[in-house]
Amino acid sequence: MPAFAACGNRLPRLDETQQTLLRRAVKDFQGRTPPIAETTACTLLEEECNAAEVAAPKITTFRRALRAEDPVLRALKTGGMRAYQATAARSDPRLRSGAASGFLHTVHIDSSKRDVRASPELKRLIDQRRALKDDTGRGYDSFYIAVDESSDSVVGHAFVVGPSRIEGVALLMREIVHRHGALPRAIVDDRGPDNQSRWLKQFALSRGITLLDTMSGGSRSNSQAENRIGQVNARVCQRLPGSTLPDKAGRSVDGKFKSLMTARLEFLQLCGLIEAFLYEDLPHIPNAQGETPQQRKEAAVERLGMLGIPCLFDDALLFATSPRWTGGFVANEKRGIRLGNHDFTSLEVRTALRINTPLELRLDAADPSVLHVIINGQRLRAFHGKVQQRAALSASERLWLRLVEPAIQAANRDQKTQVERKLSQRMERARAAADAHTHLHPSATRMPVKFRPSKIRQRHAGQSCGMTPLRRCVDGPARASAFC
Fold this sequence. Notes:
Elements: H1 16-31, H2 38-51, H3 59-68, H4 71-87, E1 106-113, H5 120-126, E2 141-148, E3 154-161, H6 166-180, E4 182-183, E5 186-189, H7 198-207, E6 210-213, H8 223-235, H9 245-248, H10 259-262, H11 267-281, H12 293-304, E7 309-310, H13 315-320, E8 330-332, E9 336-339, E10 342-345, H14 347-352, E11 358-363, E12 370-375, E13 378-384, H15 387-391, H16 395-436, H17 442-445, H18 453-461, H19 477-481
Parallel strand pairs: 1-5, 5-6
Antiparallel strand pairs: 1-2, 2-3, 4-7, 8-9, 9-10, 10-13, 11-12, 12-13
Helix pairs in contact: 1-2
């Protein structure tokens, strides 16, 4: 059947009043928050037309008017800038910026939840901390990844217990320097709070790094890092015990198959499996042209060399990649520096604290036993009392302690609060019971003492004890009883 609306008919079938009401209904439909269904909007249009005593347009006419409008405008009005960026069409390839040609010149970074949960012991610990809970009220872990733009190879990674935060970005910068001896000249990231932090901006400014922010809702702008994260979750995390894939199915999957019931692997075991996949398997997966990331990396280095910013893995880098301590502290020469429930000290720090005070404190991002301090312009390090005990641990184990320490402290505070609450309630019941039985107090049942001044005087008068004779008690019984 032909479309009669497009074959010769130029006069509209709707009068001016109907067109006005139709445009108003379309505008109202695009701007409704929360959005409404098309049938609901058509019903409202019909009510307005009946009030104006005109025939209401059919739903096909209403849908045709909607298709004539820009869908991006509706996404902007109903979902904000994030929905607008996700709905926007792809740009013209002729107007896009070209990819980097040298290795480590431009790096894409991103973070995501890990689609596998660790052992129940870790979850029991993390679940007690509200800051580490997701929408379902259960703890989860995150990981960061850095991908080189020229070769599409992974140049660094970092693991974080709980949501994404500044420590993850700092550990990622350390990992890049540790593996390649250089920092990227440009970093492409999204607009997450950890990537928009003041620390990252200051670090990039001091190291000469350019930060390029992509759209929050346009994952294709940071597709290289997004694709690698998807491969890690699909090929590693979702194939292990404790996978969160059954959780996403909702009530269609039995509870015994959910991640909290099937989690068996420890945190460090999961980190080792993901790390092996990133640096042993991914470099040898070919793309559509048959080139592997390892081959593209070698070709880029042979052609242009390493284009990153040379950087040494020294104390200056460790200090720069440690987030600043913003909480309270106590510092003196005798005990060193106290942060919360932990004391940090060293010979150099105690000597400097004799006449000066700390200007800046930074707790190391990977080792919970090290505290970086600036005193009188000098960069010093203070150590925890368990530094020798933790020195026997591996770097991954020390990182694990550093990441899980906030959860341990929060769990300890909650447990101490519960114990103190029970103790206070028990003491309050004891005091209430004592007030209710005042008639049983010993002072209430003791017979009152009656003094007899005459007999006291007679008894003392008849005694010869070598002391001064007792004079007449003119002050009454109280004076007399003092000599008894």
